[in-house]
Amino acid sequence: MVELNLPEYEFKVKKREDGSSWVIWDRLRDRWVALTPEEWVRQHFVEWLITDKGFPAALMGNEVSLRQNGIARRCDTVVADRTGQPLVIVEYKAPSINITQKTFDQIVRYNMVLHARYLIVSNGLNHYCCQIDYEKNTYRFLEEIPCYESLVNGH
Q1: Domain total of the chain
Q2: Residue at 4 is within a domain
Q3: What is the pLDDT of residues 82-135, one digit of tens each?
Q4: Any domain includes 5
Q5: What is the spatial distance between Cα 62 and Cα 28, in angstroms, rounded to a whole number?
Q6: CA 106, 89, 151, 47 torsion: positive or negative?
Q7: Which of 9, 43, 6 has the alpha carbon at shortest distance from 23?
Q8: N or C end of the chain, less CB within 10 A?
Q9: The model's pTM
């Protein structure tokens, strides 16, 4: 897999029993999942959020289902605040995929349902974090992704 703009971590990786492809252990879903380039980004990013940014794993979920206009969708990662309300939505792309307006449109559509205060997009090389202000109907991009405590406190 390609080197990412994230710290290196040790992951459980193995070949499927039939030898057809690789799988990686997803600590949030508590199961083996196909090791795709996007999954490589997800696993590194989730580990970085937990290990380096203080995000509580118990308040995080991967591939979170939601319904938007009657259509089933899945958010790559959702992080809740301590009351269980969505705080952050993260959308991942493979490192070979450029982050474009289309990527932001996708995460904003998810947020129309979840109403998270922060949106993060990453392809493992570039990371963007946006803070939503619902009272003023505005948003702003943050220079870096804050630690969990800062997000919970609205900083």
Answers
A1: 1
A2: no
A3: 999 999 999 999 999 999 999 999 999 899 989 999 999 999 999 999 999 999
A4: no
A5: 6
A6: negative
A7: 43
A8: C
A9: 0.94
